[in-house]
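hey so u asked for the seq, here:
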Amino acid sequence: MRFIDEKRKNLFRAYVAQAASVLEIAIAVLMLAAILITGVRAAGEVFGLFFAENSSQAFTTVLEHAFNLIIGVEFIKMLAKHTPGSAIEVLLFAIARQMVIEHTTPVENLVGIVTIALIFIIRKYLFVPSFGTHVPGTEAVLEAMEEKTAAASKAYGGQAGVPDAACAQPYGPQAETAPGPVLEKESTTDTPA
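ran it, structure tokens below
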């Protein structure tokens, strides 16, 4: 009886997670539509700068709308990708917008700068790019790819996992134009010494 209850709970959790994913996609589509509509209006505001009485205020309004559009696009990317990097980018743009658009005090500017610096420090030293990207059951595929890479490298005379110059040479249409090692040709004509 307890096993059946656990099975039902897990099934219910799966349905809730699926419903949340569908809802998330619907919100992203609505946000995309709103961004497209606002983008068209923002383009009209850019052309309205020619006729604005107070061009400084009109430019600030255009800049504010542009930042909002950028933050919206980053938000949609965050919903679509589900990576920590996309969440960090949304935070960076939101803080940058606050500092550029709002006329804040020097203390608020300092707090914004320190916050951005902390985000960059976290991104550089504590950020794990593969966090949340591991898909269960892919270990065998990854191991097979590593084995093929090692075998190809050994076939060209390199060490396993370390491609040598033969492996790094370009191939295809760009091979003729891509810079590569230049070998000096021996001169066949005798030059007087």
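Residues 160-188 have pLDDT under 50 and may be disordered. The chain is about 70% helix and 0% strand.
lmk if thats what u needed
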